[in-house]
Design brief:
The complex is a heterodimer of chains A (227) and B (297).
Chain A (H helix, E strand, L loop, with lengths): L1 E9 L5 E10 L4 E5 L6 H8 L7 E6 L2 E2 L8 H6 L1 E5 L10 H11 L4 H14 L15 H13 L5 E5 L7 H16 L3 E5 L3 H7 L1 E7 L2 E8 L6
Parallel strand pairs in A: 3-8, 3-9, 6-7, 7-8
Antiparallel strand pairs in A: 1-2, 1-4, 4-5, 9-10
Chain B lengths: L1 H18 L1 H38 L1 E6 L5 H12 L4 E7 L1 H12 L16 E6 L5 H9 L4 E5 L2 H43 L1 H10 L3 H39 L2 H6 L6 H28 L6
Antiparallel strand pairs in B: 1-3, 1-4, 2-3
Classes of the chains: A alpha/beta (227), B alpha+beta (297).
Chain lengths: 227, 297
């Protein structure tokens, strides 16, 4: 599903983002990416999203080498994954319904399909009654749920979440994480970059830990488990 | 399927235009301002051009025939001269006409003409549709049978042509300059709009939108603003022109000079075409230029 082979990313300024990363994430896995700020978590996510190009090594997504993917093909790569961010990134002048439907317009879905799919996803994240509301009228947790619905609406094979609970209070953070867990149980691969130590410790999933761009541990368990 | 995405993108363009009232208003007013300046300038040029053309047409040469040229010869000459390239009209001046003209000229001193009444040869007054062909035409006429001399004003002609060409060249340069300036202003205005919505654009990119999908609503927005600006400018310039020409035509100076301004309806179709191209062109090119930077996420 996601495969990194000796991947390094050095920014033009000389800053090392990721150094010599090797790992495979299989279909249906739930993986946490952990590490302090600047450890390379975000770089890793950006490499998966093809927002940044690797300076060395090979990245395969769904068995396809994306290392030298053409710019014009990047949108199609991103459609195979649902993305969730710390700051939700909803379109402020569109309703909850339109924010989710928007992702379907992009892939040129039929109006019929959109009318069926959007309410289904909104009910999955528990926001059926907020369809006509604008993002600024929602709480942080609700906004992140909309973002999740948007990420899922085109049935992607994986969800990539970059600090999805970073802006949320602990209780809401738990809700979002358990929602991600539910999604994973339905067969979707989930990759979550996070700081939330207690959640990671509790969920007992595979944890990839980064320090200064190096992967220092990769095993099932908690935040601080060593190799 | 295709229809669905097409109508969605156009719909988004309209929605954005209405939603971002401030930037729409800014772009619209700048576009209208440039278009009106452009229009005023175009109107001035058009009038200068029509005045010059008028002046050029009034430049005539007088072709004198030998005295007692037979009527058939005159008819043949008139025909031959009319058929020359660059000739607008040929007017026959008979011996009697020439004498009458002279009598008018000397009004109260008709006695001065006594005894010379039969030395005036018949002639043609020839004027041009294309003044640049003047010398060529003259050399052809002088070789025709029955033509004795040509009286011309070659110096006035060449001076007039020089001035005309200079003015036309200068106006073309200024018009091009104005187009470049408007394009620059418009693309900057749109750049501001795009900049204000860069977050939105980056979100679209993360969700997997292609560049074309992101660009189209902006292009549609540009076209809408361009067309609306063109319509308003056309109306404004029409009212302005009619008012200004009425004022000018009633002034003593203009009447003395005998200048007749071009009717607005004669310029209307040209203005419509120019404004449509300007409006849509600036909308499309402006949004294309200004979006380039933000699409590289």
């Amino acid at each position: 599903m996601i495969e990194f082979k000796n991947v390094s990313k050095v920014y033009k300024t000389g800053t090392v983002g990721v150094k010599n990363a090797n790992f495979v994430i299989d279909k249906g896995e739930f993986v946490f990416l952990v590490g302090a700020s600047g450890s390379g978590k975000s770089t890793l996510i950006k490499l998966i999203l093809k927002e940044e190009d690797a300076t060395e090594g090979k990245i395969l997504i769904n068995r396809k080498d994306i290392t030298h993917l053409k710019q014009s093909r990047v949108p199609y790569l991103r459609r195979s994954m649902g993305v969730v961010f710390q700051d939700f990134r909803l379109l402020p002048d569109k309703t909850v319904y339109d924010n989710v439907a928007f992702a379907m317009y992009i892939v040129n879905a039929t109006p019929k399909h959109i009318r069926r799919q959007v309410p289904m996803l909104l009910s999955l994240v528990g926001l059926s009654n907020k369809a006509k509301v604008y993002p600024h009228e929602l709480s942080g947790g609700e906004q992140q749920r909309v973002a999740l619905a948007r990420a899922l609406v085109n049935n992607p094979s994986m969800i990539i979440a970059d600090e999805p609970t970073g802006n949320l209070d602990p209780e809401t953070a738990w809700e979002i994480m358990s929602l991600l867990n539910d999604i994973n149980l339905r067969g979707t691969t989930v990759v979550v970059a996070t700081h939330a130590k207690d959640i990671v410790d509790f969920m007992k999933k595979r944890v990839i830990k980064l320090e200064n761009g190096f992967i220092v541990s990769d095993k099932k368990g908690g935040y601080d488990s060593e190799i | 399927m295709k229809y669905n995405i097409f109508s969605y993108l156009i719909g988004e363009g309209f929605k954005n235009t209405m939603k971002n009232k401030k930037s729409t208003f800014a772009a619209l007013s700048i576009m209208i301002a440039t278009m009106i300046i452009f229009g005023v300038f175009l109107a001035i040029i058009e009038n200068i051009d029509s005045f010059l053309t008028e002046l050029e047409h009034s430049q005539a040469i007088q072709v004198f025939m030998t005295v007692d040229t037979p009527q058939e010869q005159i008819d043949k000459l008139r025909n031959d001269i009319s058929n020359l390239d660059g000739v607008n009209s040929v007017q026959f001046v008979s011996e009697e006409d020439a004498v009458n003209i002279m009598k008018d000229y000397f009004e109260n001193n008709e006695k001065l003409l006594a005894g010379v009444e039969d030395i005036f040869p018949p002639s043609f007054l020839v004027n041009f549709s294309d003044l640049t062909k003047s010398e060529e035409v003259q050399s052809q006429i002088i070789n025709m049978e029955g033509v004795s001399t040509i009286q011309n004003s070659n110096e006035t002609t060449s001076a007039l042509l020089g001035v005309g060409n200079a003015i036309r060249l200068i106006s073309a340069i200024i018009l091009v300059f104005l187009i470049v300036v408007s394009l620059f202003i418009i693309s900057n205005t749109i750049k501001l709009t795009v900049h204000a919505r860069r977050k939105e654009i980056s979100i679209m990119k993360y969700v997997g939108a292609t560049n074309a999908f992101i660009r189209w609503p902006f292009v549609v927005e540009g076209i809408i603003i361009g067309v609306v600006a063109a319509a308003i400018s056309l109306l404004a310039i029409g009212l302005l022109y009619n008012w200004a020409s009425t004022q000018l035509m009633s002034s003593v100076l203009m009447q003395r000079l005998g200048i007749i301004l071009v009717n607005f309806t004669d310029m209307f179709s040209m203005l419509v075409v120019v404004y449509a191209i300007l409006g849509i062109g600036m909308g499309v090119v402006g949004s294309m230029i200004s979006m380039k930077k933000y699409l590289e996420v």
